[in-house]
């Protein structure tokens, strides 16, 4: 337990509202002060290294109450078929903004993409949520099943600010959004059986997840995924790691069975717990580093890659069971 928490103590807040410090948020998810503001400007294309030549790169800088929060990059490029694509990326230099060190996520993704590019088979197919699919495709060159958002995504202020820079999902891709939302939020054994049956054994299929998917829960539900009853709380970080762990464990036991995921966000822990068995057994929860999920993987997947920062990003291979 101590090792698990210690590995999660190097991160920082990133996305608006969900990970703003507690003093910036009101009950019900509203925020204090002015609305989120966004400005964008061209970025040197040479600063973004991907597997495809970037036709343009825009930096979108978000602020609130006159304070800079974080920046995201959108790279526009053409895929191997000549079709226009877009990828939301984390800036390398964002760690200079103390309130939002996206530079750590940049490093995690660069390392993961390098391994995926070198180790994954040429015909590998990656399942993930749409924004992760964009990064998989652009940074590693491997095929991602889902890469484009639809209208339900743009209800969120951050994604609304990026809407003009992202190609919209087709009818087929909207169907995939609904299917992926369903798989991530349903019972893990049923989801993995459906995934294996849907794609079959003809090509290697991988599933990529990371802790930021917990920020997409409302979006997953909007696309038809099952609502996951997860509790979340900000717990101030002290100077005693053992004392911090005790506080996290006490809260997790008070709100459920003691199963939790903790991630350090500047001066506090953002902690999630699973108050009911349905959420605890959902595919997303079983594949993220919740303490109970770490004890045993669900059948049908094998872990082939896990990042630093406490296993923030993981890649699993879908195992196809022989039919008897």
Describe the structure in brief:
It contains 11 helices and 12 strands. It is an alpha+beta fold.
Order of strands across the main sheet: 6-5-7-12-11
The overall strand count is: 12
**Secondary-structure element string:** HEEEEHEHEHHHEHEHEEHHEHE
**Count of DSSP helices?**
11
CA(first)-CA(last) distance: 41 Å
In one word, what is the shape? Answer: globular
Share of residues in helices? 25-40%
- Average pLDDT works out at 85
The whole-angstrom Rg is 19 Å
Output the structural class.
Answer: alpha+beta
The major β-sheet equals: 5 strands, mixed
Low-pLDDT regions: 1-33
Strand content is 15-25%
Keywords for this entry:
four-stranded antiparallel beta sheet; alpha+beta
Word description of this protein:
The chain is α+β, with helices and mostly antiparallel strands. It contains eleven helices and twelve strands. It has helices spanning 2-6, 102-119, 130-140, 157-162, 171-185, 188-199, 217-222, 241-255, 277-280, 283-287, 308-311, and strands at residues 37-42, 54-64, 67-78, 84-89, 125-127, 143-144, 205-210, 231-236, 260-265, 268-273, 301-306, 313-318. Strands 6-5-7-12-11 form a five-stranded mixed beta sheet. The chain has a four-stranded antiparallel beta sheet with strand order 1-2-3-4. Strands 8-10-9 form a three-stranded antiparallel beta sheet, with helices on one face. The model is unreliable at 1-33 (pLDDT under 50).
